[in-house]
């Protein structure tokens, strides 16, 4: 079986000796090696990585929502400031 390794950042499968991930473009400094793993372990590993990638997508959406909330918070503060100028001294 061909040696299999994955991008530590996005989980994309890497060819042997590949230095730049074709999935996310990150530089592979020390590619993880799975030569000694069984097929089942490699498959399990890819699923774990897929889970991680999915989780990262979820975290990104949460972060976007958080930033929007912060924006709303600032807007609300400005509205309050305009409505009641004396409350922010
Ligand atoms: Zn990658």
From TrEMBL:
Organism: Sediminispirochaeta smaragdinae (strain DSM 11293 / JCM 15392 / SEBR 4228)
Entry coiled-coil feature ranges: 55-82
Record-linked Pfam families: Zn_Ribbon_1
Keyword annotations: Coiled coil
Protein's recorded name: Zinc-ribbon domain-containing protein
Domain Zinc-ribbon: 6-26
Highest taxon in the source lineage: Bacteria
